Amino acid sequence: MSGAGSVSDAVRLLAHTRFTVLTGAGISTDSGIPDYRGPDSPPRNPMTYQQFVGDEAFRRHYWARNHIGWRHLRATHPNAGHRALAGLERRGLLTGVITQNVDLLHEQAGSRNVIDLHGHYNEVICLRCGTVITRQQMHERLEHANPDFAVEVGDIEIAPDADAVLADTAGFVVPPCEVCGGVLKPNIVYFGENVPKERVAAAYAMVDDGAALLVAGSSLAVMSGLRFVRHARKEGKPVVIVNRGATRGDDLADLLVDDGTSEFLAELAASLPDL
User: Fold this and answer.
1) Which tens digit of pLDDT belongs to each residue from 70-96?
2) Would you tell me how many other CB atoms lie within 10 Å of the CB of residue 205?
3) Which among 70, 221, 230, 58 is positioned nearest to 134, based on CA atoms?
4) pLDDT in tens, 12-44
5) The pTM is what?
6) Which run of H or E residues covers position 50?
7) Phi and psi torsions of 59, nearest 5°
8) Bridge partners of 241?
9) Domains observed in the chain
């Protein structure tokens, strides 16, 4: 295991293989989406599933903040790291991308085989009847229910899950499901909520299909991502981690690169030979 790796070291481990990529919030910071646990990130306390389900005031507070944060997230664009991975997939060098992000930037960059492990920000689901609507439809309903709620995106702090930091949300109105009157929730996996089993199984299969695993921009602080690193290690597959700062999986890696993902992935894509 090395803590001072470089792109050339990664090329030596990944050349002439098809490998799998696991990405976290760090890959999207250059697109203007802050991460949770980077070296320069402020402390954050994201809402848990239990808080959202069990407390109407928490739900109201979340939806008011999400109403603003969603506008920012949908205006972001893929960066060089996302584009590099899409290019590697087109060349047949990737089995696919497993992402812990909900921002859809991998898909926007052109990646086709993507597992959105935690879902994505652009859908809303009813917790009672399971009806799914688009986030645009929810936006229109929230606008109609809160015509006087106006906060400019540039005036607030945005978090990675389309959340925004607002102090006062007491008067915000959250409409219920139009089908059954149930509670509406963004169709993403919250802290304290389990990733659907079939999605986890698909991600394991993607790791199994590759000869190595590259982790890009994740601290691996939560088990939803760390388990795939442990699985790759158990199966004897090389593990490369590129991230700013230490990760929970450092002791499992064959190579550690303490760097940002955009430049690293662009250089890696340019340096890897075709199969």
Assistant:
1) 888 888 999 999 999 999 999 999 999
2) 13
3) 70
4) 999 999 999 999 999 999 999 887 554 554 445
5) 0.90
6) helix 49-54
7) -60, -45
8) 215, 256
9) 1-33+78-118+195-275 (3.40.50.1220), 42-75+121-188 (3.30.1600)
Which 3 state secondary structure label does DSSP give 255? strand
The label of the residue with tokens 């230490």 reads 246
- Mapping DSSP onto H, E and C, the string for 210-226 reads CCCEEEECCCCCCHHHH
**Core vs surface per residue 255-267: b (16+ CB within 10 A) or e:** bbbebbbbebbbb
Q: State the Cα–Cα distance between residues 101 and 188, nearest whole angstrom.
A: 10
Catalytic sites, residue numbers: 118
Gap between the Cα atoms of 107 and 116, Å rounded: 10
Question: Which residues contact residue 81 at a Cβ distance below 8 angstroms, ignoring those fewer than 6 apart?
Answer: 27, 30, 216, 217, 261, 262, 264, 265, 266
Closest by Cα among 172, 251, 253 to 214? 253
φ/ψ of 95, rounded to 5, equals: -75, -25
Angstrom distance (rounded) from CA 240 to CA 13: 8
27, 102 contact by CB (below 8 A): no
